[in-house]
């Protein structure tokens, strides 16, 4: 994250998916992009994006430890980049 801060980006970090959803909803219009890991606790990254994308239009970059074709296709189908 230091990379982003060096270039004067404001970064919000959370380890909790439910908190991420709350932050995105409470601060609509204040975020430009979402970086998300698929392997989250309580809720997977797919579910988080589905919930938030109904209300908020943001580009989402999904990060995967393993690249499998079916996971990539799923991400593309829900507008992940």
From TrEMBL:
GO biological process, one term: phosphorelay signal transduction system
Modified residues (4-aspartylphosphate): 37
Taxonomic superkingdom: Eukaryota
Annotated InterPro entries: ARR-like, CheY-like_superfamily, Sig_transdc_resp-reg_receiver
Alphabetically ordered keywords of this record: Phosphoprotein, Two-component regulatory system
Pfam families, sorted: Response_reg (PF00072)
PANTHER family: TWO-COMPONENT RESPONSE REGULATOR, TWO-COMPONENT RESPONSE REGULATOR ARR10
Protein name in UniProt: Two-component response regulator ARR12
Organism: Dendrobium catenatum
């Amino acid at each position: 994250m230091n990379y982003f801060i060096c270039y004067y980006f404001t970064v919000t970090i959370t380890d909790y998916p439910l908190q991420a959803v709350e932050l995105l909803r409470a601060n609509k219009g204040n975020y430009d992009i979402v970086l998300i890991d698929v392997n989250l606790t309580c809720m997977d990254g797919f579910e988080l994006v589905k919930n938030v994308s109904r209300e908020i239009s943001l580009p989402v970059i999904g990060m995967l430890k393993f690249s499998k074709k079916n996971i990539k296709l799923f991400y593309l189908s829900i507008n992940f980049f």
